[in-house]
Write a structure and sequence with these properties.
about 210 residues, about 20% strand, three-stranded mixed β-sheet, globular, alpha/beta, Lambda Exonuclease, Chain A, PDDEXK-like_dom_sf, single chain, YqaJ viral recombinase domain-containing protein, five-stranded mixed β-sheet
């Protein structure tokens, strides 16, 4: 049993390493489009009633995200944000490092995926992830969806915290909030809702609507 679990984790780690280029990788696009991914977790969690066919198709469609204005801007500034974030954190922890991250998949949640903005290596701490956002809208159920995105990423990656960064590209200012993982919320609210949505609507759309 342990060796079987180890093999599954090895495959998940290999998948992430293959996809550090994220949207530039054909494999990333293929793996991404068959999963409910973190950027849509907020929209799914806030969906109280039966979702429209248009909504489900929009989550399934393999769109070129590079053409989305906000995403294109974020990608253009990502390297600068990584550098400033690392420099600021190195003032506190000398060997603090930010690495590229690929598509994260959890063997126990194979229908979900997450592509964090970066992976953090901080001595004396567990490896964790970085999420760059535009605001501190991190309350459960907020329309921004940042809380569900961050908590969902942590659940998929199996980590205890992540750093949520707000980067102002005009002034190169940055604020960082360290978010702890909420196991109760994730296991009793977020993950059950994502699973239900995937198997009730998303999986059907993959087969019949796209």
């Amino acid at each position: 049993f342990d060796s079987f679990n180890s093999a599954r984790h090895d495959k998940a780690q290999a998948l992430e390493k293959r996809n550090v280029l994220q949207g530039k990788s054909k494999d990333w696009l293929e793996q991404h489009k068959v999963r409910l991914t973190a950027s849509s977790f907020g929209k799914v969690f806030l969906c109280v009633y039966r979702p429209s066919e248009a909504m489900v198709k929009s989550l399934v469609a393999n769109n070129d995200l590079s053409k989305v204005r906000a995403i294109a801007h974020g990608k253009a500034e990502e390297r600068v944000a990584h550098s400033i974030f690392a420099r600021n954190m190195q003032k506190v922890t000398k060997n603090f490092t930010v690495f590229d991250a690929g598509l994260c998949v959890n063997p126990y949640l194979p229908y979900l995926g997450a592509s964090p903005d970066g992976k953090i290596s901080e001595p004396l701490a567990d490896p964790c992830y970085e999420k760059t956002g535009e605001s501190f809208y991190l309350n459960t159920g907020h329309s921004s969806g940042y809380n569900e995105q961050a908590k969902g990423q942590m659940a998929i990656a199996g980590i205890k915290w992540c750093d949520f960064c707000v980067f102002l590209s005009d002034t190169n200012e940055m604020c960082v909030e360290r978010i702890p993982f909420d196991d109760i919320y994730s296991s009793t609210q977020l993950l059950p809702k994502l699973k239900e949505f995937y198997f009730d609507y998303f999986d059907y759309a993959l087969k019949y609507l796209v």
